[in-house]
Structure formats: C-alpha cells, structure tokens
Amino acid sequence: MTTAPAPGSVPEPARPPELLELYKLAVEMADRVSARRGTANAFFLSVQTALVTVVGFGIPRLEEAAWWAVLAVTIAGLTLSVAWWLQLRSYRDLNTAKFKVINQLENSLPVKIFADEWTYLKEDPIPAGRKRYAELGLSERLVPWVFAGVYLIILTGTLFR
After folding, report:
1. Cα separation, 51 vs 43, whole angstroms
2. How many other C-beta atoms are found inside a 10 Å radius of the C-beta of residue 106?
3. Residue 17: exposed, middle, or buried by beta-carbon count in 10 A (0-12, 13-18, 19+)?
4. Which of 63, 87, 117, 152 is deepest in the core (most CB within 10 A)?
5. Where are the alpha helices (DSSP H) in the chain?
6. For the chain, which residues make up each domain, given as ranges?
7. What are 121-143's pLDDT values in tens digits?
8. How big is the chain by its Cα radius of gyration, in Å?
9. Residues 10-54: tens digit of each pLDDT
10. Beta-carbon count within 10 A of 112 CB
C-alpha cells in the first residue's frame, strides 16, 4: 500500500508490477537451488554411510582384507567425497549469483528483506555466547572431507599393519 507523498517532497518513482513478480521468481529459484542442495546432501550422506557400513560389516577385520579391495573402497569413497564437495561448491556459486540478482532487485523495492537479514545476522551478537551467526554452509562443506579422512584412515590402517 502506498501513501500520498508529503507536500513538497519528491514522489517515489512508480515500480512496475513486473518487478515484484521478477523478485518473487528470483527468490523462488534461489529456494529451489537450496532444496536441490539439501536433496543432494541427503543422497551423498546416504551413499557414504552405506559404503562405510559395508566396510565395517563386510570387512570385520581389516588386517585380513586384501589391499586392493581396501584401495578400491578408498578410491570410491574419495571420489564420492570430492564429487560431493564440488557439487556443494557449485550450488554455493549458483546461489551467490542468485542472491546478487535478488539484492539488485531489492534496491528498487521499498524493503530489502534479504540484505537486511544478512546485515543483522553479521552485526548483532547471537544469544547463547556466540559472537556471530554460524553459516550452515561451512559445516556442510566439511562433511565430505570428514568422510575422505575416514577412507584414508582405513587405507592407511590396512597398508601399514
């Protein structure tokens, strides 16, 4: 809802209704990228967990396992970890670009919802003793490397017994 400008002030330029629709579309597309990222994370986490479980139950005694079998599992696990991390990086880059567009569109709107939200998250201390908002993406990007470390430990334990 708009109000009449105060006497003597410059009226706000008219915004075409298409701008708001473009903004809604951009926000929806950014949300879809985030949802796809969540689905991809669930997939990779399931596959990685299954692979580690197979190693745990399928090779109960690593010292009895053939080195080539452990090497194959390690290569598979490392490949999954790297693919997962690269996909996370791709989703992050895509969302960064989408939010740049959203922020540009917000410059033409009366409220900057996303820009203001990030400003508040980064400036104000968060309750419970934390000094700053902890970005979920950081921990999300560490998980593939944790799995990679698990596979390297399994390989090292097998080769140097």
Report:
1. 12
2. 19
3. exposed
4. 87
5. 17-58, 67-106, 113-123, 136-159
6. 17-121+134-159
7. 777 566 666 666 667 777 888 99
8. 24
9. 656 556 788 888 999 999 999 999 999 999 999 999 999 999 888
10. 15
